[in-house]
Specification:
525 residues, alpha+beta, 13 helices, disordered N terminus
């Protein structure tokens, strides 16, 4: 009795030999001869959507067939352009539904905070004006006349309120860049402080002025001026807490992308964990190269290829311990791993060779296309001014001469999903309009650029999840680790405090640098 376990199959268990060994051998051969049916059943798990415009220049399946293509690919292949197929997974559908559910709650929270801040700000600016106007409306005849000092206070209140209005607009009324999970503690404390401050002023005003109908109008105006002065000091406090406190670097954070290990270092001041997460995400889109999952499939396919074909035979029957089979597979995998570094070396060398060759072809094709553009521009200058070629038309005219070389290079470097034909034409027209060189045009495609460089729909993640053992409203501390997760990858942030540096001064006497050079006047004859 024997059991055969094939790593390419999807079942496990034991199969018993019988007298019909030929029939079993024929069934196994038929199973290995029909891999298409297996792929067809596997493809039913994905949903395919026909997308009209803004498709990538190359299909997403180009990276799977790249290894089997020779350098003359395209001359013997018929390509059909115009439409492309994009696949969407179940995770994408779940993410879309989750975004739709969370958008309602986020919008309500955002508008609620803006409404409270706007109502409180309106109350702050109307309170000094109300303090001055209410006595004039309620007991105007009983008020003492306002002298020169009182009228000068009117000008002081007006200008102070104008300065306060401009400062409040610059500090608070900004378009929000993100929705944070918890309230901003310092901002909430300032709002509470302002509310208590204005409420106490109204309470004192109602008890000592409105009830008694104070006739000293200059004292009332002076009371309003003191309120405006106190509001200006609160505004200065807000600037210190919200802006100046975080400017001095205190912590050094290391940000690592979980998939490919790309990392960056940033210096941060006194911030809460959620605000530090926002700073990290803003810098991520600017500094990190775009996330390309196609570059990670090569190592996975190589590991699967090494494990494929390993077979373990159980000659003692189904009752034997299965741990022996595991040890056998581990030993076989270890023996294959000893020689896998040679395969990896030659694979990477061959890939680098193809990249260099196709890069050279692309550079030559683009230089020839730009030379053709200069020749066309020289011909257009001799024509009438109304017959000048538009940059978009010029880009469409020279694009076919470089399209094949660019297509092959993007497929080899697995960048085809980030560059659509429309985006390439727009970039080419932009380079022609600004009289840029071929090297400036190729800069976007020869190396992976920052995330913001590419189309927003291809990299932007609407939902980030902050995972932290500490409260997200607490400040950064030495050794704090938090994770920012999106659908495809995560950013691991490790916080380290900048060490205290002690400098000492050493005085060097200027006279210690002086020396005397004595030369002997006697010479040998």
């Amino acid at each position: 009795m024997s059991a055969t376990m094939d790593t390419e199959s999807t079942y496990s268990g034991y199969s018993h030999y019988s007298g019909h060994s030929k029939k079993a051998h024929r069934q196994g051969r038929d199973r290995h001869k029909s891999p298409r049916s297996k792929d067809g059943s596997r493809s039913e798990k994905s949903v395919t959507i026909q997308a009209p415009p803004a498709e990538p220049l190359l299909g997403n399946d180009a990276s799977r067939t790249e290894e089997g293509q020779d350098d003359n690919w395209g001359e013997t292949t018929t390509a059909i352009t115009g439409t492309s197929e994009h696949s969407i997974s179940q995770e994408d559908i779940a993410r879309i539904s989750k975004d739709l559910e969370d958008s309602v709650g986020l919008d309500c929270k955002r508008y609620l905070g803006l409404t409270v801040a706007a109502v409180l700000g309106l109350l702050v600016f109307l309170t000094p004006v109300a303090f001055i106007l209410l006595p004039q409306i309620l007991w105007r005849d009983a008020l003492e006349p306002c002298g020169t000092v009182c009228e000068g206070l009117f000008i002081s209140v007006a200008f102070k309120l104008l300065i306060l209005l401009i400062g409040t607009w610059a500090l608070f009324f900004r378009q929000p860049k993100a929705d944070i999970p918890r309230v901003f503690v310092f901002r909430a404390l300032l709002l509470v402080l302002i509310f208590l401050f204005v409420f106490s002023y109204w309470l004192f005003y109602g008890v000592r002025i409105l009830d008694s109908k104070d006739t000293n109008y200059q004292g009332i105006v002076q009371y309003a001026v003191s309120l405006v002065d106190a509001l200006l000091f609160i505004h200065y406090l807000a600037i210190v807490l919200l802006e100046l406190r975080q400017l001095q670097p205190v912590f050094a954070v290391k940000v690592v992308r979980s998939t490919d290990g790309e990392s960056r270092y940033y210096s941060l001041g006194h911030l809460s964990i959620q605000r530090a997460a926002l700073v990290v995400l803003e810098n991520y889109y600017r500094d990190f190269t775009v996330y390309n999952p196609s570059l990670l499939t090569a190592s996975k396919s190589r590991a699967a290829k090494h494990m494929a074909g390993l077979k373990v035979y159980n000659v003692d029957g189904p009752g034997n311990n299965v741990s022996g089979q595991s040890r056998a597979m581990i030993a076989a995998a270890a023996r294959r791993r000893d020689s896998s570094h040679n395969e990896l070396y030659y694979e990477e060398a061959d890939h680098e060779r193809r990249v260099r060759k196709r890069r050279a072809r692309l550079v030559v094709a683009v230089e020839e296309a730009f030379t053709h553009i200069k020749r066309l521009q020289a011909e257009e200058e001799q024509k009438a001014p109304g017959e000048m070629m538009d940059p978009r038309e010029a880009a469409q005219a020279i694009f076919p001469s470089m399209a094949r070389a660019l297509q092959k290079y993007l497929r080899t470097t697995r960048q085809q999903q980030y560059h659509s034909m429309e985006s390439i034409l727009q970039h080419l027209a932009f380079c022609i309009t600004n009289n840029m060189t071929p090297k400036a045009f190729l800069e976007r495609y020869l190396s992976a650029g920052p995330t913001l460089q590419y189309d927003r729909d291809r990299w932007f993640s609407k939902q980030w999840t902050l995972v932290s053992e500490e409260a997200v409203t607490s400040g950064l501390q030495d050794g704090v680790v938090f994770v920012l997760k999106c659908l495809d990858f995560s950013l691991v942030v490790n916080v380290k405090k900048i060490p205290f540096i002690k400098l000492s001064e050493e005085f060097i006497d200027p006279k210690s640098h002086k020396f005397v050079l004595r030369l002997q006047s006697e010479t040998s004859v």
